[in-house]
Every structure is written in C-alpha cells, then in structure tokens.
Amino acid sequence: MTEGDSLILGIDLGTTNSLVGVVDSGLPILLADEHGSRITPSAVYFPMSEGAPVVGAAALRQRAVDPARTVTSVKRLIGRRPGEGDWVPPYRLGELGTSAVDVSAQILAHLRGVAERAMETTIRRAVITVPAYFNDAQRAATKRAGEQAGLTVERILSEPTAAALAYGLHRIDERKKVAVYDLGGGTFDLSILEMRDGVFQVLATAGDTELGGDDLDRLLAEWIWAQFDVGGRSGFHELPAVPRARLLEAAEEAKKRLSSSESHTVELPFFEAQRNLHVVITRADLERIARPWAERTRTHCLRALTDAKLAIGDLDEVILVGGSTRIPLVRQVVAEIFGREPNTSQNPDEAVGLGAVIQAGILSGSLRQVLLLDVTPLSLGIETFGGLMNIIIPRNTTLPCKAGEMFTNAVAGQDSMLIRVLQGERELAKDNWELGQVAVPFSPGAKGSARVGVQFSIDANGILQVLARDTVTQVDTVLEIQGTAVDVADERVEQMISESVDFAFEDMNERIWTEAKLKAEELLPAVDAALAQAGDAIGAEDRAQIVGAADRVRKVLADPEHSSRLLKEATQVLDDATQSLAVILVEQAMEASLERRGLL
Ligand code: AMP
Q1: 259 lines ligand 1 (CB under 6 A)
Q2: Of 269, 293, 317, which residue is a domain's last?
Q3: Where does residue 212 rank: exposed (0-12), middle (13-18), buried (19+ CB within 10 A)?
Q4: Distance 553 CA to ligand 1 centre (A)
Q5: Do 464 and 513 reside in the same domain of the chain?
Q6: How far is residue 345's CA from residue 343's CA, in Å, rounded to a whole number?
Q7: Does residue 206 contact residue 301 with C-beta atoms inside 8 Å?
Q8: pLDDT surpasses 60 at 92
Q9: How far is CA 387 from CA 408, 459, 515, 557, in A?
C-alpha cells in the first residue's frame, strides 16, 4: 500500500448506521465494504473469549443472541458523564471493559479499514460529523475517538451543514436560510441554517432524541399483532422476545415497502404454534397509524423557527435527511408544516455522509475545480415571440440539471420553428449571447396547433444538450453545445450581470411593451373576424363602439412612444367593448347547433 497523505475521509458516524467516503478523481463517493454494503451498522460485539471485537453487520447479528455484549447506539452515550441523560442501554460498558469513546474508535477504525481496502492506500485524515446540538465535551470525545482510530480529525462538522453541502446549498446566496429536517431510526433533529460569509451558521436546533422510525415499527407491529390476535388474548408487549423481534422486523420491512407500493402482505410462517401469520397492510393503513407519529415533529419545527426568530416564509429551502423521510406521508407532513414542498433531490440516508466527503474534498483541495464548474454562471434560454428571452435554466443552477417547456407556432401554416439558444440576463434576446440555433420542423396547422417541447440538459461536464421534440410526430431534433454554457470567463459574467442591472428598468419596460403588443396583435384580428361573423345581429351603436376601440388600439400600437400603459388601457377598453359581441356569438353558435340537431 502507498500512503494517501492527501486523502481525507468523510465520515458520518451515526447512531444506527455509519458511512465513509472520499473524493476520487474529483467526484465524492461513498465506499462499500467487501460485502458491497455502503452502510455499516454502528454496532460492536465483544466476544466472551479473548477474541477481538466485531464491528458492523456481523455485530448486529449478535444482538438478539447476546444483547449484553453487543453495543449499539453508543452515540447516545458519548461525551456524557455516567448518569447524564435518560437513555438506558441493554449493556454496561464498564462490565465489558470499554467506554463510549473506545467503541466509537472501533467503529471509526473499521470504517477507515473499509476505505483503505477500497482505495488501496493507508489513510490518516478525516472529517467526522456530529449532531448540531453536540456540546464541546461531546465534540471533543468524538475527536478523541477519531485519534484513537489512527486518524487526524481535520474537522468536526455538524450534520445539518453536511446535509446542506450534499444538497449543493453551499452555493446559495448570503443570508439564505435553510431548514434541515432529519428523521432517522431513533432521533429527530430540526436545524435552521443561514449562509453567512460563505459558511453555514446554525441559527437554531430542536428535536427529540426518542423519536424515529423505530417508534413507527413498534406501532405497526402492534397493529399487525392486533389483526392476527383477533381474540385479543395478549398484548404485543407481553409476547416473548423472539416472536416480538420477528414481528418488529416484519413491520419495518412492511413500512419500507409501503414507501413505494400501495399494499404489502406480511407473511410469518408458523408464527404461533401451527398458525401462520398472514396480514395485508395498505399504505392507507400505515398512514392512519403514522399520522400522529409524524405530527409529533411539528412542534419541534415551530420551536426552532421561533428560536431563530424566523417566520415560515423566511425559509428559502427545506431539505430532507434520514431514512424515515422516504415515507411519503412524512414528506406530506413536512410540506404541511412549512407550506412548501421539501427538496427531495438527494438520497436522504446518504446526505450527511456525502456532505462529510464533500467537506473533506474541499479541505484537501481535490474538489475546488469541480465546485467552480458546478453551477450555471448565467441563465440559459431561448428566444420567444416578440424577441424576448425565455429562461429555461436560471443562473446559479446546480449541475447536472434538466428543464424544459412547451412552445407553439405563432403563425398559421408555419412548418418550422427556429430555436435560438441564448445565454445571459437581459430581457431581450438581442442583448444576450447566442450559443447556437437549430430549426425544428413540424407539420403545418392553425396558429397554436404545433406542440414543440424544448428541453435543456447540462451534464456534470458542462455539456449542454438541447432537445426539441415535435410532440405530435414524436420527432426529435438535438443540438449539442460543448463547454460554453458553463465555461465563461469571470469578467464576462460580471459584465453581463452589471449590464442587466444597469438596464433593468429599460429592459423591463421593453418586455412589458412587447407582451402588451403581442396581446393586442392577437386581439385585433379576432375582433375583426367576430364583427364580420356577427353581421346584423349586433346593433349599430355597439358596432361603432367596438370599431372605435379597435382603432384606438391600432393607433397606440403605431405610436413611437411605446407606452405600455396606454396600450394596456386601450386593449382593456376593447376587451370590455366586445363583451356584448361575445354573447351574440355564443347565442349564434347555440342556435346553429340546435338547428343542426333539428331541435329548432
Ligand atoms: P437513518 O437513521 O437515517 O439510517 O434512518 C433509519 C430509519 O429509516 C429506520 O427507521 C428505517 O426503517 C427507515 N427507513 C429506511 N428506508 C426506508 C424507506 N424506504 N421507507 C421508510 N423508512 C425507511
């Protein structure tokens, strides 16, 4: 093995599970052990004999057999003095001749081994995450555990900050505020962060160290038992340890399945004497059981907001962390609490680990380049009716990204659409930079009959692909633009942005005028056609009023003043004047239809 001095591990040392990763070839990755698993249970088994402690999944398997010698959830004890806190473990560290720091060191050494095998080098440096509410003693104890595992701890990083890094939020603007909703197996944490001077500050935290997915497993197991034990002979808690453990395991499995399916059947052969347990559970059943449990997070969210002196509307983003946030009902409750959809773009159980890796990569310098390239420096869009810029991907969007919109034809009989791909912040297409253009053919038809979907996607390498699809014929046209979409010199970006600020007023007026003009130009021929169709059905006075209003619109349109206000007023008068005309046309249409069907 060679020594990987520049490598820094990112470690999520969790209550239930831990993860380890590194930045490899510019990309943050989580590493798998020899069994292909990226998740290591935070469990250590101390065998009776002289044998070495066993860490991870193998240790967890011993828990049912030998709970007194299997240490789990040690994070609940770390940095605590004896008697502090109220969680009582089913083991005694003293009797096992160990301490919370020792056990954490065993787990960290195991994770280091996983990484060294995967990277084929020795590694001596790490970033380790801890909950935001950990005090100095708890942080120092975690650091000691790292040192005991042969690691120099370069940084102790708070978990919500790590999650925000994984969600790419370190590139958000100053003063932006983020809520991190972390619901794991045994704990719930809500943290509010604010970006200040390029780093996240934790404004407030709240939570419950006794609220997590495990509680829901118990509630579900009780429900399954009640379905099976129809006579109500005994309570779930009176069951012997082994059937109770089987039920809990089946309940967790059912819960996870129901995050993606609507129904699940729990089958436990020979559950009691000769009876097989067979219970069908639907997502609706689970949601009924889970609702009060999920609602318990609400007060903590509101408390954290109050502590941070913020209103719900002050938050710019809500992100999800922890396996239990995969439950659709939890996402719904989060949306209800915060009045906005949470960001679900990352894998919630890997977000903290990935964030630790990203922080490690930034510290070792191996990520800097990628980070610079990682957002779109300027907005990307296409030219639309009236020469306006229609933004498809706004500036500062994290890569890779994808977005699209539907467009139609402005003129009847048109058989193709020219798509000009633009970059910049100005309102008018002509003031932005053109990156390329492509003609999209479609079958000619009436105005507004074409349906062309335009999709922009930028991959991690900054290659922009523009795909235009005629959704009527399903024919695709593709244009690929290398590099230019993201690779713009800083001075040019600055110039474009300062111009967009300097000309903001003129640009906005021009856009408002163009939009009003498009509306007027659409209305005028429609009014002419309607007048012709209505014929004598419309009174002379009404007709004169409409013709007058239409003339006024034409006059304002032709006026070089380009007054959006006058145009909007004139269009409104025309719109109002045609109300009676619209009624007549509807009546005519009804009569014609009744006549056709022989009812008149
Ligand atoms: P964590 O502490 O983040 O590893 O989260 C572990 C918790 O997430 C456990 O209670 C799991 O049962 C739960 N969990 C993991 N995956 C899912 C899923 N797909 N649906 C519901 N809960 C899940």
Answers
A1: yes
A2: 293
A3: buried
A4: 63
A5: no
A6: 6
A7: yes
A8: yes
A9: 15, 28, 10, 17
Residues 205 and 237 in one domain: no
CA atoms within 13 A on the CB side of 434: 11
- Active site residue ranges: 12, 75, 159, 182
Tell which one of 73, 349, 350, 354 to mutate to probe ligand 1, the residue whose CB is within 8 A of the most ligand atoms.
Answer: 349
E-strand ranges in 412-562 read: 416-423, 433-441, 452-458, 464-470, 475-481
Instruction: Report the atom number in ligand 1 closest to the C-alpha of 14.
Output: 2
Model pLDDT, residue 12: 98
Residue 112's domain is classified under what CATH number? 3.30.420.40
Q: Are residues 476 and 540 in the same domain?
A: no
- State the distance from the centre of ligand 1 to the C-alpha of 227, rounded, in angstroms: 24
pLDDT value of residue 106: 98
Mutation choice for ligand 1 from 256, 289, 321, CB with most ligand atoms inside 8 A: 256
Residue 1 has pLDDT above 50, yes or no: no
The one-letter code for the residue type at 558 is A
Length of the chain: 600
Residue 537 has what pLDDT? 80
| 494 is a domain residue | no
For range 145-159, the mean pLDDT: 95
- What number of CA atoms fall less than 13 Å from residue 244's CA on the CB side? 11
Which residue, 349, 395, 368, is CA-closest to 488? 395
Flag the least confident range among 379-388, 390-399, 409-418, 479-488: 479-488
Residue pointed to by tokens 């209305």: 523
Residue 498 lies in a domain: no
Residue 154 is predicted with a pLDDT of 94
Q: Let me know whether 271 and 188 are in one domain.
A: no
Spatial distance between the Cα atoms of 577 and 253, rounded to a whole number of angstroms: 66
Distance 323 CA to ligand 1 centre (A): 3
Alpha-carbon distance 493 to 582, whole Å?
Answer: 50
The per-residue pLDDT for 373 is 43
Q: What is the mean pLDDT of the chain?
A: 88
- pTM for the whole structure: 0.64
pLDDT band per the 50, 70, 90 thresholds, residue 374: low
Single-letter amino acid code for the residue at 286: L
Cα(180) to centroid(ligand 1), Å: 17
Which residues neighbour 353 within 8 Å (Cβ) at sequence distance 6 or greater?
10, 11, 12, 19, 20, 21, 30, 129, 162
Asked if residue 72 lies in contact with residue 40, where contact means CB atoms within 8 angstroms, the answer is no
Q: What is the 3-state secondary structure (H, E, C) of 561-587?
A: CCCHHHHHHHHHHHHHHCHHHHHHHHH
- 530 pLDDT band, cuts 50/70/90, is confident
Residues 6+ apart with CB under 8 A from 525: none
Q: Which of 23-32, 150-159, 444-453, 534-543 has the highest mean pLDDT?
A: 150-159
CA distance 130 to 421: 46
Residue 370 confidence (pLDDT)? 40
pLDDT value, residue 43: 96
What is the residue range of 8's domain? 3-211+296-373
pLDDT in tens, 327-350: 999 999 999 999 999 998 889 999
